[in-house]
C-alpha cells in the first residue's frame, strides 16, 4: 500500500495569522511510518519527496509515474535512504544488500528498481527516504554510520552537545542537490541549531525520532526571525522547513533527527546565521 500527501508552498505572510492547527496541517507530518505501508509527502518546496517505507510480510516498492510525469520514480530523481528500525534489505536493480539500523544509501537518477524488505515482520525496518529532482546520474553508494567520522559540536553548558553524521554529503558521495544526515544529541542535551539560521537557497525537512521516553516532545521553532512560531512534535514525526524559515528545536529530553536538504547548491555551510538579539 502507498499513500502520498501533497503540501503546497507558503509565503511568510501566509502563516502570520495561522492557528496552531493550521500550522500543523501545513508543516507537520504526523504519520511517517505505518507497518506494511509507504507513507510519502510531496512538498512543493524545491519538490522534495520524503517519508517512511515500513515493509512487514512482503517487500515494498515506491511506485510513482503519472504523478511525476515520468515512466518510473527515479527517472529524473535521486534518492537517499536511512534505516532507523529493525534489520532489513534493499534491492537496487537486482542487487540486494543488508540494511541494519543506521545504514544509509544514496541511489542515483535512472535507477529503475528499489525494493525494501524487513528481516523480521515483528521488528520491521523503517526506511526513511528523501528524494529530489536530479540532472545527472551519480553512482549508488551504501553508507553506514560506522564509516562516518561525525562532526562533534555544541557544549554541555549550552545543552546542545551533539554528533552530526553526514551521509549524503560531498565528503561521502556525489549527488546533484540532495543532502542528508543524522544528528544524535548527547544525554543531557536538548537544543539543536541554536543560534539558529536560515538558508534562502535551500529548503529542509526534519524527521525527529529515538525519543528518550514515550512522553518526550520536541518544540520545533519555525517562522521568520522576527516572527517565530513553533510546532510540538512527537516521536517519528516530520517537519517541512521552507527556505525563509528558521529551523531549530528543543526537547524535553535528548533525541535524534534526520535532516535532508535540496535546492541551489550542496554547500553544507551555506547558511545565514541569525543573531540571538534578532529573534522575536
Helix and strand layout, with pairings?
Elements: E1 2-7, H1 20-27, E2 28-29, E3 37-43, E4 48-54, E5 60-61, E6 77-83, E7 88-92, E8 95-99, E9 103-107, E10 114-118, E11 127-133, E12 141-144, E13 151-153, E14 162-168, E15 179-185, E16 191-192, E17 197-198, E18 202-209, E19 218-224, E20 227-233, E21 237-241, E22 248-251, E23 256-263, E24 272-273
Parallel strand pairs: 1-3
Antiparallel strand pairs: 2-21, 3-4, 4-11, 5-10, 6-9, 6-11, 7-8, 7-10, 9-12, 13-14, 14-15, 15-23, 16-22, 17-24, 18-21, 18-23, 19-20, 19-22
Describe the 3D structure.
The protein is mostly beta strands. The protein has one domain (2-8, 17-273): Jelly Rolls (Sandwich). It has 1 helix and 24 strands. It has one helix spanning 20-27; strands at 2-7, 28-29, 37-43, 48-54, 60-61, 77-83, 88-92, 95-99, 103-107, 114-118, 127-133, 141-144, 151-153, 162-168, 179-185, 191-192, 197-198, 202-209, 218-224, 227-233, 237-241, 248-251, 256-263, 272-273. The chain has a 7-stranded mixed sheet with strand order 1-3-4-11-6-9-12, with no helix packed on it. A 7-stranded antiparallel sheet has the order 2-21-18-23-15-14-13. The protein has a 4-stranded antiparallel sheet with strand order 5-10-7-8, with no helix packed on it. A hairpin with a 2-residue loop joins strand 19 and strand 20 (227-233). The chain is globular, with a radius of gyration of 18 Å. The N and C termini lie far apart (43 Å). The mean pLDDT is 95. It comes from Enterococcus sulfureus ATCC 49903. It catalyses: 5-dehydro-4-deoxy-D-glucuronate = 3-deoxy-D-glycero-2,5-hexodiulosonate. Catalyzes the isomerization of 5-dehydro-4-deoxy-D-glucuronate to 3-deoxy-D-glycero-2,5-hexodiulosonate. Belongs to the KduI family. Pfam families: KduI.
Amino acid at each position: 500500500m502507498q499513500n502520498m500527501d501533497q503540501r503546497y508552498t507558503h509565503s511568510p505572510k501566509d502563516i502570520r495569522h495561522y492557528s496552531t492547527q493550521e500550522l500543523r496541517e501545513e508543516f507537520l507530518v504526523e504519520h511517517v511510518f505505518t507497518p506494511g505501508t509507504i507513507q510519502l509527502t510531496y512538498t512543493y518546496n524545491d519538490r522534495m519527496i520524503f517519508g517512511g517505507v515500513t515493509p512487514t510480510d512482503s517487500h515494498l516498492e515506491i511506485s510513482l509515474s503519472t504523478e511525476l510525469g515520468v515512466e518510473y520514480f527515479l527517472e529524473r530523481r535521486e534518492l537517499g535512504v536511512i534505516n532507523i528500525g529493525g534489520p532489513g534489505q534493499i534491492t537496487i536493480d537486482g542487487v540486494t544488500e543488508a540494511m541494519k539500523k543506521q545504514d544509509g544509501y544514496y541511489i542515483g537518477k535512472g535507477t529503475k528498481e528499489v525494493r525494501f524488505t524487513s528481516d523480521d515482520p515483528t521488528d520491521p525496518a523503517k526506511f526513511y527516504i528523501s528524494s529530489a529532482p536530479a540532472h545527472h546520474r551519480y553512482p549508488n553508494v551504501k553508507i553506514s554510520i560506522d564509516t562516518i567520522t561525525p562532526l562533534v559540536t555544541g557544549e554541555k553548558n549550552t545543552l546542545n552537545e551533539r554528533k552530526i553524521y553526514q551521509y549524503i554529503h560531498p565528503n561521502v558521495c556525489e549527488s546533484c542537490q540532495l543532502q542528508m544526515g543524522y544528528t544524535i544529541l548527547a544525554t543531557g542535551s536538548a537544543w539543536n541549531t541554536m543560534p539558529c539560521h536560515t538558508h534562502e537557497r535551500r529548503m529542509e525537512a526534519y524527521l525527529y525520532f529515538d525519543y528518550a521516553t514515550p512522553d518526550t516532545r520536541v518544540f520545533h521553532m519555525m517562522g521568520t526571525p522576527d516572527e517565530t512560531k513553533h510546532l510540538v512534535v512527537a516521536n517519528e514525526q516530520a517537519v517541512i522547513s521552507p527556505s525563509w524559515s528558521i529551523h531549530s528545536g528543543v526537547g524535553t529530553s535528548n533525541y535524534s533527527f534526520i535532516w535532508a536538504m535540496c535546492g541551489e547548491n550542496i554547500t553544507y555551510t551555506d547558511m545565514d546565521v541569525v543573531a540571538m538579539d534578532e529573534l522575536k
